[in-house]
Here is the input.
Amino acid sequence: MSEKVQKIHDKERENPCGKLVTTVNFLLEKFVGGQIFFTELDKVVKGDFEILSYLIDATLKKWGEEKPLLVASGEVGIFLENFKFPVDILVPGGLRFEPKKIDLAPFKKQIEEKKVVFVDDSYFSGRTVEVVKEAVESLGGIFLGAYVVYDGAKEKNPEVFSLYRYYDYHDEEGNPLDDRT
Here is the structure.
C-alpha cells in the first residue's frame, strides 16, 4: 500500500465518517470543481444514511444543549426526513441560484425567540445560509449557525461548520496538503 493510500486510510479511521474524505477526494479528481462537482456531491450525500447521520450527530453535538430547531432545505431535507432525522422545518431547495426570500411566516410561533440551526449538504457562496438566516431573524428567531457536509468557500464563515472544509485539505491553488490527505 502506498504512503498516500495509507494516509487516506488513517484519516478514515480518525473520522467516524471517513468515507466522506475519500468520496470528496474522488469527486474532486473526477469533476475538478464547479457546479458539476456540487451536483454529484449532492447525489452522494442525500442518499447516504451514514453521512447524513454524521451530519446530524455533529450538529447536535455542537448545539444539542441549546435545543435548537433544525431547518433543512430541498432534497437533502427530504432525505433527512425520510431517514427519520429530527428536521423541524423544511424549506425549498435551490435558494442559491437566484436572490430569493423564503416565507417562514407559517412557522412564526415555532421560530419566534427560538434558537435555530440550518443543516445542508454544501456551502460555497453563502447565499442559501443568508436567505435562511434572514428569514429566521425576521421572525424573531435566533440563528445559531449552519452545519454542512462540505464547505468549499475560500473565506471561513464563523457561522458555518462543516464535516469537510476544502481549505483544511487544500492550499489556495487547490493543491492537496500532504499532511492532511
